[in-house]
Specification:
alpha+beta; Neutral Protease, domain 2; Immunoglobulin-like; Zincin-like; 3 domains; 26% helix; binds zinc ion
């Protein structure tokens, strides 16, 4: 970014809008800053007609001990990582994607093995049906639920986004259960909600969290059943292994988290895609008959860009940005473990991250558009902070978003050079100072998405957040900064973190007490040593 952009208040607001919009944030606020126009208007959630119960799907027995097939989704040096996931969340899904009367319908069944890794005895298993969130705008129905082969009567709460399965026999620590669910999920053509991620438009079906997904059991708090805010990311989940057979019309190109290891004709006019993942915390599905694809390798990572007809110039630039981002982050933060990374053009708002994939809005898909570059660099950094190192994006959005925004500076230094990146950081500083100057609340970083109203979320999490990391960088130096991020990444690969995990990694890597600095910017959190905070 250039310093000219700082010349007027209006341009400052425009800079803020660039950052606010990343990851689907609306960026539109009523107070403080000049009005930032949303680029997509929220529509009331549309509810397609209930899909009649499909014919029962008979799933084969799954050999949960065998994880060999998942190695194909990993870089060779990380293939053994799958061995540690025999007793983690496991998904085996068979589904079909069909189009009927302008409604995209997935009908499927899944066998899921859940292992109780907590010290508590569980009397229920909780899944999330995120597609039913108003901000996603799909419709998911459950037709059959079984636990260890026995039918159970599920309960639904939280606007049908929480599915509760009672356990007749409580699940002891270390024990496993196998859950079978039959489901459908539908999206009407042209339907889009504020987040705009789940839907079917322009011959592209985009299905985040398109299957019933295990929630997270938190010791002491129970199963997580929070309702995500419309301005942040939805998913909160633990890492597991996915094996998926998805049948689509034969001309469809399917892009999912992980790697397609096989495909075969499975009926008249249809083809079945066989996907496996490495240890991942979600599986995104995007499918279209119109995608073009470009591929380039970073070492042994295949970076693919899927684009719409006529958008190849943007795709070439997207590929360059994604390749630069993967290379820089892989060297700076720690090795990306998966064999593949996909950037996919869809109709969503801005850009949204998923394991091994990111979707980028067609509205920004143009060469030379700085927001296009920043969004791809940002979403790619989420592969490190969100995908591999996971966190609760709803209750503690700073954990992944602020570090991801700081990572943009690391990308900037690697691609744009020191001077232009310094201008960029100075621009963020001016935005933050301007925001405070309007009298808007200078909130701490460690708050749930729902605690930030209007544009506070964007400025605090996306602008103040990376500036906090700049404070750390100025205190510790760049070398120690990257060493701390590498330590944090290595310690928490495939796991979920809390705020104190970042503090611990930075203190251990720097051998300094950082409680006071964290308290000033981040706020209080369990694990922060308040007694050592200098008031
Ligand atoms: Zn983000």
């Amino acid at each position: 970014m250039t310093s000219e952009r700082l010349s007027t208040v209006v341009l400052l607001a425009a800079i803020a809008a660039l950052f606010l919009a990343a990851c689907g944030d609306s960026g539109a606020g009523a107070s403080g800053l000049p009005g930032l126009e949303p680029t997509m208007t929220s529509l009331p959630p549309s509810t397609p007609t209930d899909i009649p119960a499909p014919d029962p799907i008979t799933l084969p027995a799954v050999d949960w001990e065998n994880v060999d097939q998942f190695r194909a989704a990993m870089r060779p040096a990380f293939a053994d990582d799958v061995d540690g996931f025999v007793n983690r969340n496991r998904y085996y899904i068979e589904a079909s994607l069909e189009f009927e009367n302008d409604v995209a319908i997935i009908r499927g069944a899944e066998r899921v093995r859940y292992t109780n890794r907590s010290a508590d005895t569980l009397d229920e298993i909780v899944f999330r049906l995120y597609a039913n969130m108003a901000s996603l705008g799909g419709r998911m129905l459950i037709y059959r639920a079984e636990i260890n082969g026995q039918p159970v009567e599920p309960g639904l709460t939280a606007r049908d986004t929480v599915l509760i399965l009672p356990l007749e026999t409580p699940l002891e620590p270390g024990g496993s259960v196998e859950i079978t669910l039959e489901f459908s999920v539908a999206a009407e053509r042209g339907m889009h909600a504020s987040y705009g991620a789940f839907g079917f438009q322009k011959e592209v079906f985009s299905g985040p969290e398109w299957y019933p997904m295990l929630s997270v059991y938190e010791e002491g708090d129970g199963w997580w059943v929070g309702v995500p805010s419309t301005q942040g990311d939805a998913g909160y989940s633990e890492t597991g292994l996915y094996e998926i057979y998805l049948t689509t019309p034969e001309d469809f190109i399917v892009v999912m988290s992980g790697s397609e290891i096989d495909s075969f004709a499975s009926g008249e006019g249809v083809i079945t895609h066989h996907y496996v993942s490495g240890p991942m915390r979600d599986s995104l599905l995007v499918a279209s008959p119109v995608f073009g694809v470009l591929t380039e390798y970073v070492d042994d990572i295949a970076v693919n860009v899927y684009y719409w007809p006529g958008d190849e110039p943007g795709a070439e630039e997207a590929l360059r940005i994604a390749v630069d981002s993967v290379r820089i982050y892989d060297e700076s933060f720690g090795r990306y473990p998966y064999a593949e990374f996909d950037v996919v053009e869809t109709f969503n708002f801005s850009g949204i991250e998923y394991p091994g994939m990111t979707v980028i809005a067609d509205a920004n898909w143009e060469p030379g558009n700085q927001f296009f570059e920043i969004t791809i660099a940002h979403e790619t950094a989420h592969q490190w902070w969100y995908s591999v190192v996971g966190s609760n994006q709803v209750d503690q959005p700073w954990l992944d978003e602020s570090l991801t925004c700081y990572s943009e500076y690391v990308y900037g230094r690697g691609v744009r050079g020191e001077k232009r990146t310094k201008d960029w950081i100075d621009g963020d500083r001016d935005t933050y100072n301007y925001y405070k100057g309007t009298g808007a609340p200078d909130l701490k970083l460690n708050l749930p998405v729902s605690s930030y109203v209007d544009h506070n979320y964007g400025v605090i999490i996306y602008v103040k957040g990376p500036l906090f990391y700049m404070e750390l960088e100025n205190l510790l130096g760049r070398e120690t900064m990257l060493a701390a991020m590498q330590l944090y990444f290595e310690r928490h690969r495939y796991e979920l973190v809390e705020s104190h995990d970042i503090l611990d990694a930075f203190e251990d890597a720097s051998d300094q007490e950082l409680d006071t600095l964290f308290y000033e910017w981040v706020g209080e959190f369990p694990g922060l040593d308040l007694s050592s905070v200098e008031q």
